[in-house]
């Protein structure tokens, strides 16, 4: 039977005269007001609440996140207006260097067969729109590279999740389907922007199954049974489903569909952390504990292994007991904090750079007034003093101190690219005597602190550190220099 208890459906009726986000603002105005929120954590929280309204964020993370799909039907086609549009899609094709397979996929799913139709090279409007007219779906893989609004939204949301936030845009012609039933390894928020789309969500779990987390296998329709949720999303609606839930979407004959899937939490599980912990823990254990270096039994191949797994042999029981003992001891050698730092570095490499607010830009290195004017350099050499008040630019910049045993490096995201991993992870070496001051800055956020309050040995040290961090775009000042 259908496990309908897994589904919570929220119908949010809005009057025609009501506004996009419920308080009189369209998305541009909402983001402009959001930029005035000083604390970037609060900014991320408010944006996420806008995304899932009217579901309270606290109850969402308590009751729904990673657990079950949820549907929000708003009856307000303008709720997400301004996030992205087919007109923006067309502008990007005309003005940007969109490459097939890198930025754009052309796909179809007919008679149970999924096909990708990407030619080589740049995706130009003449060919792309011909594919669309022929019934193919268009998937833009990284709209944040071309759309400042999508970039802004994702760069804020990544702080809400503590994990990279990504997006794909899907444009589907009427009466077609672009993808086979599949599941993904991300938490997915399907935001319907234009038209409408018919969705079916299936639960692959039974009481004896583990939620799958492998990326995007396709399924035959006969293999997945009946949907636990079937709905037509219209513009302004939202559908969330956790990783592992099989899903498929197809267009009705009378309307095209444009939606953006906002995703996060890829490779952010306990298992992913343990993949970093266990190998290093084992190396340490083998160096420090003789029991890990003791030889295996001389005859273990005669009673262990798959071919011997059905044997009722006491030696097998003893073997498993020793494995269990060693596994328990392994936790004593687990470098958990170091592994978390590795995860943090991965996150920082994945992250989008922050899209700065006017206030952040004007008080950071990116808005410094130095320039060439009237044949000379103007407003150069503005100086930081011990009285200058500074703070970390925002927490999504997420400066992270990590040590490799020989040196301490500070990792940051302000110089990242809007294209995933186009640039190497950014870091620079920090003097050991400056680490306390870096931690002081991070933990002081969102308060501004004077450079003179840095826990350094001298005023010169404090100013030198502040200048370095300012030049790297990691801190900004309370007032423009």
TrEMBL record:
<keyword id="KW-0156">Chromatin regulator</keyword>
<dbReference type="Pfam" id="PF21233">
    <property type="entry name" value="WHD_RIOX1"/>
</dbReference>
<dbReference type="GO" id="GO:0005730">
    <property type="term" value="C:nucleolus"/>
</dbReference>
<keyword id="KW-0539">Nucleus</keyword>
<dbReference type="InterPro" id="IPR003347">
    <property type="entry name" value="JmjC_dom"/>
</dbReference>
<dbReference type="GO" id="GO:0140680">
    <property type="term" value="F:histone H3K36me/H3K36me2 demethylase activity"/>
</dbReference>
<dbReference type="GO" id="GO:0005506">
    <property type="term" value="F:iron ion binding"/>
</dbReference>
<keyword id="KW-0678">Repressor</keyword>
<feature type="domain" description="JmjC">
    <location>
        <begin position="136"/>
        <end position="281"/>
    </location>
</feature>
<keyword id="KW-0804">Transcription</keyword>
<dbReference type="GO" id="GO:0036139">
    <property type="term" value="F:peptidyl-histidine dioxygenase activity"/>
</dbReference>
<dbReference type="Pfam" id="PF08007">
    <property type="entry name" value="JmjC_2"/>
</dbReference>
<protein>
    <recommendedName>
        <fullName>Bifunctional lysine-specific demethylase and histidyl-hydroxylase</fullName>
        <ecNumber>1.14.11.-</ecNumber>
    </recommendedName>
</protein>
<keyword id="KW-0805">Transcription regulation</keyword>
<keyword id="KW-0408">Iron</keyword>
<keyword id="KW-0479">Metal-binding</keyword>
<dbReference type="InterPro" id="IPR049043">
    <property type="entry name" value="WHD_RIOX1"/>
</dbReference>
<dbReference type="GO" id="GO:0032453">
    <property type="term" value="F:histone H3K4 demethylase activity"/>
</dbReference>
<keyword id="KW-0560">Oxidoreductase</keyword>
<keyword id="KW-0223">Dioxygenase</keyword>
<comment type="similarity">
    <text>Belongs to the ROX family. NO66 subfamily.</text>
</comment>
<comment type="function">
    <text>Oxygenase that can act as both a histone lysine demethylase and a ribosomal histidine hydroxylase.</text>
</comment>
<dbReference type="InterPro" id="IPR039994">
    <property type="entry name" value="NO66-like"/>
</dbReference>
């Amino acid at each position: 039977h259908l496990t309908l208890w897994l589904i919570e459906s929220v119908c949010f009726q809005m009057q025609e005269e009501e506004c996009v986000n419920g308080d009189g603002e369209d998305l541009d105005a909402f983001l402009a007001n959001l930029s005035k929120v000083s604390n970037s954590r609060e900014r991320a929280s408010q944006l996420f609440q806008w995304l899932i309204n009217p579901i309270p964020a606290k109850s969402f993370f308590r009751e729904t996140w990673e657990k079950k799909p949820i549907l929000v039907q708003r009856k307000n086609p303008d709720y997400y207006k301004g996030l992205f549009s087919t007109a923006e899609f067309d502008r990007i094709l005309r003005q940007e260097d969109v490459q097939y397979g890198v930025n754009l996929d052309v796909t179809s799913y007919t008679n149970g067969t999924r096909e990708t139709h990407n030619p080589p090279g740049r995706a130009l409007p003449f060919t792309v729109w011909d594919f669309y007219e022929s019934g193919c779906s268009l998937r833009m893989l990284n709209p944040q590279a071309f759309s400042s609004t999508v970039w802004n939204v994702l760069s804020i949301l990544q702080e809400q999740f503590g994990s990279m936030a990504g997006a794909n845009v899907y444009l589907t012609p009427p009466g077609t389907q672009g993808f086979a039933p599949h599941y993904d390894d991300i938490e997915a928020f399907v935001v319907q922007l234009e038209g409408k789309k018919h969705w079916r969500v299936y639960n692959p779990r039974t009481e004896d199954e583990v939620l799958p987390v492998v990326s995007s296998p396709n399924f035959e329709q006969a293999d997945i049974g009946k949907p636990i949720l079937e709905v037509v999303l219209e513009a302004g609606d939202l559908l969330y489903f956790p990783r592992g839930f099989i899903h498929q979407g197809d267009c009705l004959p009378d309307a095209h569909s444009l939606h953006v899937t906002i995703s996060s939490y890829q490779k952010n599980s306990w298992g992913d952390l343990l993949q970093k912990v266990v190998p290093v823990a084992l190396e340490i254990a083998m160096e420090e504990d003789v029991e890990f270096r003791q030889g295996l039994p001389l005859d273990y191949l005669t009673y262990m292994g798959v071919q011997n797994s059905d044997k009722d042999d006491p030696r097998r029981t003893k073997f498993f007991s020793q494995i269990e003992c060693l596994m328990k001891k392994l936790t004593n050698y687990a470098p958990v904090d170091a592994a978390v730092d590795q995860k943090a570095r991965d996150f920082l490499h994945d992250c989008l750079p922050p899209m700065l607010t006017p206030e952040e830009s004007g008080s950071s290195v990116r808005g410094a007034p130095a320039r060439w004017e009237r044949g000379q350099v103007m407003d150069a050499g503005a100086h930081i003093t011990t009285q200058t008040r500074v703070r970390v630019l925002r927490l999504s910049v997420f400066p992270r101190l990590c040590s490799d045993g020989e040196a301490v490096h500070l990792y940051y995201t302000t110089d990242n690219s809007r294209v995933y991993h186009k640039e190497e992870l950014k870091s620079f070496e920090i003097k050991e005597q400056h680490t306390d001051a870096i931690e002081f800055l991070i933990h002081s956020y969102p308060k501004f602190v004077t450079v003179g309050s840095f826990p350094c040995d001298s005023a010169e040290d404090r100013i030198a550190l502040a200048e370095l961090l300012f030049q790297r775009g990691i801190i900004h000042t309370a007032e423009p220099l």
